[in-house]
Amino acid sequence: MNQHLTPIMIGILAATLPAYPVVGVAAELGQVDVSDPTGGTQMTLESGATVTHAGAGAAITVSGAGNKVIGDGIRITAGGAGGQNTPGVKASQGGAVELSNGSVQTVGTGYYAYGLHATGAGSSISAVNTEISTAGLYSHGAYTQSGGKVTLKGGSISLTNNGSTGLRAEGANSLITAESVDITTAANNSAAVYVDNGGRVELTGVNASVRGNTIAAMTARGAGSTLSLKDTHLTAVSGRGIDAESGSLVMTGGSVTAYGDAIMANRLYGVQGGAVEVSDATLSSSNGYGINLNADGASAKLRNVSILAERSWGAGIWLIGVDSELDAVDLHIDSQSLGIDNRRGRAVLRGGSITTRGNNAYGLYASREGGTQATIETYGTRIQTSGTGSVGALARVSGASISLTDSTVDTEGAKAHGLFSSGTNSKVSATGTVVRTRGADATGLAMSNRTIVMLDSTQLSTEGADAYGIWSYVTGDDITNTLFLTNGSRVDTQDAAALLVTGGNHDFTLRDAHVTARQGGVEDGGLLLHSRAVDVTSGGTTTTIEAGQVNLDAAGSTLTGDVLADSGVVDISLKDASVLTGALISRGGRVNSLGVDATSTWNVRGNSSFGVLNNAGTVRFVAPDAHAGFKTVTVNDYAGGGTLVMNTRLGDDSSLTDKLVIDGGSTSGTTAMCIINAGGAGGQTTQGIRLVETINGGTTTADAFRLDAGSTGYRGSAGTIAINGYDYSLVRGGANGVASDWYLTSVYTPGEVDPETPEPPITDPGGEVDPGTPEPPITDPGGGVDPETPEPPITDPGGEVDPGTPEPPVTEPGGPVTPPEITPPGGEGYVNVSPESGAYLGNQLAATRMFMHSLHDRAVGRITSADDADRAGNALWARVKGSHDSGLRLTQGKVDVDTDSYVMQLGGDVLHARAGQDGVILAGVMAGYGDARANSTSRLMVPGSNTSVNARARGKVTGYSVGVYATAYANDVTRLGAYADSTLQYARYSNQISSELGSARYHANAWMASVEAGYAVQPFAPGSALAAVVVEPQVQVAYTRYDAEDATLPGMKLESGGADSVTTRVGARVYPLGKSEASATVRPFLEANWLHNTGAPRVEIGDGRFSAKPLRDAAELKLGAEGRIGKSLYLAGQVSGLAGNGDQRGVGGMLNVTYRW
User: Residue 946: CB partners within 8 Å, gap ≥ 6?
Assistant: First the structure.
């Protein structure tokens, strides 16, 4: 029908024709009302029709289940000027409306002129690509009540008057769904969405813009109310973006941009706070919080959400409600002020990042100001702040705590802090976390007033002037801060103290921690711990709070930096292989004690002064360098049991050294002193090098210190230090020094018996005492002598010990016996000299003597009769000699050297020329091999015991020689008359020195030249009994030049001090001249010589020179026989003995074989 239908007509048709659908006609219609009480009426309006209505009720009203109006392209206008309550479309009591591609406009400025209104269960309105606008007050674009439903797809909603809402759902089961809809409003107190009292709104791909003044652009109010957003974008020019007021918000994708809070979860009175779930979305606030959990029990569950809080006081997320909760994964916050601000709730962050950019900003802020907790937990979260005074993470007030796991905190700005924990029982903990600060006065961790901080496997580093690693401060007396650094945690500073404490008490517990302080980027001069007072101003009055008790308990930890106490009392304990490198300095305050257990070490890198040093481990003075020289540690009391490693430039009394000073206190226990030579060349001391000094009445015990086997050049057999020829002993009192001080001395001076501890009297055991029984002699076992084995108590300082001299007689039996007066070996000022010097010189002397020989040592005499006219031809010869020399002594100390040597030489004539009628000139070549062993024994005095030990060193020489010789005889047949002989040899030696200090190999070479002359005569008358006796006076001059490489042993370098020598021999040989061939096969001989040597063999060791007492003059005697086997083979053998000045002696034997042809 193509006509206008009035409402009465539509109603009549609906009543009379219930079974037939009403066919609409394209027209301009008035009000459309389908209210068939029996239901089932469906009206389809002509496409493109207009519906205009200005009266009461909606322009289109459908009421009753089964009744429906359908319209496509319908333009609906409701209301007029001053019109009241004229909605565009209303469905009630189960009625339904379906619109598409049209518009709904309410133009009245009165109240409640809704665009779409569905009320009651089963009532529904569907609008596709429909433009909806309202002009009235509180005139919502789409409104559902009491279970009504509105479905929007495409299109738009525009609101122009106050109090209006784009989409509003009230009551249980009320539902609005909108997809790809644009919602705009510029009116005040308007909103894009409002869900109340159990209603539900679901938005997909919606763009909403609220430009008027409003509280919230979207609201889900009341228990059961739900607002769901998917890929929806909301802009709120003023006010908040979304309120979850005891309702629920579920947002996936999209964004919220708001002037105030992007999202607030608050509550109705007596109802749980709102719940927010947001994922893959962006939230932005220009003047508030990204998310404000502003009600008790409010919660937010975030996944991959980005929040931008631009206001200078705003925060990414604010937890102000009691027991409010934040559960965030991959949350990214960028804020000018605070990232997470938690006052009463619990926040858990996994991954993601927090970035703040303003001054005095906080990445994480937990301050319990109500309820029972304010906690923040992060797992793998990155926190960054930039700005003066900013803090990465702050926990304050009891019940507030921040826990960081596998996270990073970076701050940049002056006076910033990476972590901050303040207030009674506030807690900050970090595990596997990295904290870095950059800026002046920027502290890695600040903690104050009864707080507890636990850092586990956490790295904390600062960069900037006065950027402390950890600053612990207290503003009242009897208040303690507690810090735990465990499981590989590190603290590193570049230009400030690692640990700064000010005011009050502080307990630091370190387990497997590493703390390194630097100054100007270098470790030298860095402060590990600095204790200071703090000024507190209150009410205009400033009070200075001194530091109290500071405890640093380290186990398995490495600490680098000095400890400076300007206030308070500091006690330090090192356990379980802990290492502290730095100085301990009391200045204003007091470093009270340092305890070093058996496994731990204190490396002393600067002068230190404090109370008590308990050293059961190792106290090691750092080697002097360009930054710090030798160091002094001054303590009141010292308890030993461990090791002191000290550097000493070993030389004379003026040697620089590290030192331990006992100031007014005492020592206990026994400490091993490991002395490291710091470039000293050794030297002779007078009083000694003082290592331990007592002042102000300080004392040491007699067994307080001993030398450690790890000392440079330590000689175990004597308990001394061998440095370049001098053996140093550690002596209490030194050589006439301060009785309680300890010295290194290379000179032994007998000590006096302490008058307070006299020797006990010897009482009569009840029998006779044999005064004639001498002390048993000491048997040298052949190696280093047990230092506990004493030398014989009575010696003659100037000569041999008389073993038959008895002890002084004992006084009458029955009373105390006066002990004999003991003269220590060596006497006053005895120098302990290393035996290695003797071994070196023993090698030298063995080498220079090895291949030197006379003519008769090389050539066996002709065994002929006086009338034998035969002429001898050429000869091949070989000789073997063995000898033992003893009694060689050094001019310093008590060093004796014995030498055993073996030599084999062979040679042959290469020239045989006649000289005159009977004479002959022979020339030949020779080569040799020799081997020698030198044994050097030095008697070293054991300080304080009046006993000595024998320290030994061994030398070895293996040599090879080549040479030439020339000999002239006046009579080649009888060898009577004059003769002359000369030799020139070159020798190369491989040498070795070995002792308990170690072993050294070196090479040497020598040139040897000799000129000898003699004259054999028969002085007795022919026919007499002695007519056949030949006397042969001889004279020989030999020159030797010896050069050797240096020999280096631990603690000493031995250099040849010059070995040029000239030896002269004057003697005579006596032998019989055979009368016939038959009687001339064996010829004995006797030779006596006087030897004189100009050489002064010496060795230079460091700055010292040690020389052997030269064998200036010696008598030599040779006894032997020469014989001939057949006509060509000659044999000779001899034994020899030598005795010279200084009790030097030698014995030897030689065998010579010569073949002539």
Answer: 750, 751, 790, 793, 822, 824
| Distance, CA of 756 to CA of 358 (rounded, Å) | 76
CA proximity to 385, closest of 407, 416, 406: 416
Which pLDDT tens digit goes with each residue over 255-281? Answer: 999 999 999 999 888 888 999 999 999
Residue 785's alpha-carbon distances to 351, 722, 792, 838, 937, in angstroms, are: 71, 16, 14, 17, 10
| Stretch among 34-38, 263-267, 810-814 having the lowest mean pLDDT | 810-814
For residue 1049, what are the β-bridge partners?
1052
User: For a pLDDT cut of 90, what percent of the chain falls above it?
Assistant: 69
As a whole number of angstroms, the distance between CA 879 and CA 910 comes to: 18
Closest CA to 385 of 415, 429, 352, 418: 418
Q: Give the CA dihedral 578, 580, 585, 591, nearest 10 degrees.
A: -10
Q: What is the DSSP letter of 1075?
A: S
Average model confidence (pLDDT) for the chain?
87
**CA dist., res. 494 & res. 980, Å (int):** 84
Residue located via tokens 């503003």 = 475
- Compute the half-sphere exposure of residue 878: CA atoms within 13 Å on the CB side of its CA: 6
Give whole-number Cα distances, 430 to 343, 409, 421, 913, 1135, in Å: 20, 10, 12, 103, 89
Class of residue 755 by CB neighbours under 10 A (exposed 0-12, middle 13-18, buried 19+): exposed
The whole-model pTM stands at: 0.75
* Rounded distance between C-alpha atoms, residue 855 and residue 574, angstroms: 76
Question: Tens of pLDDT along 119-172?
Answer: 999 999 999 999 999 999 999 999 999 999 999 999 999 999 999 999 999 999
Q: How far apart are CA 648 and CA 706, in angstroms?
A: 16
Whether the Cβ atoms of residue 232 and residue 204 lie closer than 8 Å to each other: yes
Q: How far apart are CA 718 and CA 727, in angstroms?
A: 9
The pLDDT, as a whole number, for residue 733 is: 93
Task: Write down the residue that tokens 């001993």 correspond to.
Answer: 706
Block residue for tokens 């007998």: 750
For residue 862, what is the DSSP state? Answer: P
- Chain mean position to CA 418: 23
Distance (Å, whole) CA 448 – CA 421:
6
Domain locations in the chain? 1-214, 496-605, 614-758+782-832, 833-1156
Alpha-carbon distance of 328 to 337, in angstroms, equals: 20
| Number of continuous H segments (helices) and E segments (strands) in the chain | 3, 101
Amino acid at residue number 304: N
* CA separation for the pair 711, 997 (Å, rounded): 11
Burial label, 618 (beta-carbon count in 10 A; 0-12, 13-18, 19+)? buried
Q: What share of the chain is helix, strand, coil (3-state, %, to 5)?
A: 5, 55, 45
CB 288 within 8 A of CB 259: yes
pLDDT value for 820: 35
DSSP state of 8: H
Question: Are residues 677 and 714 in contact, defined by beta-carbon separation less than 8 angstroms?
Answer: no
Residues 6+ apart with CB under 8 A from 510: 484, 485, 486, 489, 552, 553, 554, 555, 557, 559, 578
The C-alpha atoms of residue 370 and residue 1044 are separated, in whole angstroms, by 89
Q: How many CB atoms lie within 10 A of CB 895?
A: 30
**Cβ–Cβ < 8 Å for 204, 230:** yes
Query: Looking at residue 5, what is its pLDDT?
Result: 45
Please tell me the distance from the alpha carbon of residue 546 to that of residue 688, in angstroms, as a whole number.
44
pLDDT for the residue numbered 823: 36
Judging by beta carbons within 10 Å of its beta carbon (0-12, 13-18, 19+), is residue 385 exposed, middle or buried? buried
**For the purposes of burial, counting CB atoms within 10 Å of the CB of 784, is it exposed (0-12), middle (13-18) or buried (19 or more)?**
middle
Sign of the C-alpha dihedral computed for residues 255, 256, 257 and 262 taken in this order: negative
Residues 1052-1071: tens digit of each pLDDT: 888 886 678 899 999 999 99
CATH 2.40.50.140 for domain 833-1156, yes or no, is: no
Sheet (strand 1098-1101) strand order: 1047-1049, 1052-1056, 1098-1101, 1104-1107
